[in-house]
Amino acid sequence: MELLVIKYGDKYVRIKEGEYVLCSIQKASVFPITELEEVKYHVLELGRKGHQSPKVYKLVLHEEELEERR
């Protein structure tokens, strides 16, 4: 699975109620690849609000069952 996130420096961006908040990856807003245009819009908005050079990153997730050791 591939997802998109916006990163600014060493922080990620959370979009909540139209506001942009810098946060850790655990709280970051994530988007499916199909929403790339929306992500680009948010990057432009961040630039307009004074955040220089926010970047889009692709998260590549690999899923496997966790085998617990006893």
If helices are DSSP runs of H or I spanning 4 or more residues, what is the number of helices?
Answer: 1
Unreliable spans are none
Following the backbone from N to C, one meets helices and strands in this order, namely EEEEHE
Task: Bin the helical content.
Answer: 10-25%
Indicate the proportion of strand residues: 35-45%
Task: Outline the biggest β-sheet.
Answer: 5 strands, antiparallel
Distance between the termini: 30 Å
- The shape, in one word, is elongated
Q: How many E strands?
A: 5
> Rg to the nearest angstrom?
14 Å
Structural class: alpha+beta
Mean pLDDT: 93
Question: Your description of this structure?
Answer:
- This protein has 70 residues and is of the alpha+beta class.
- The protein has one helix spanning 36-48; strands at 2-8, 11-16, 19-23, 31-32, 55-60.
- Strands 1, 2, 3, 4 and 5 form a 5-stranded antiparallel β-sheet that branches.
- The protein is elongated, with a radius of gyration of 14 Å.
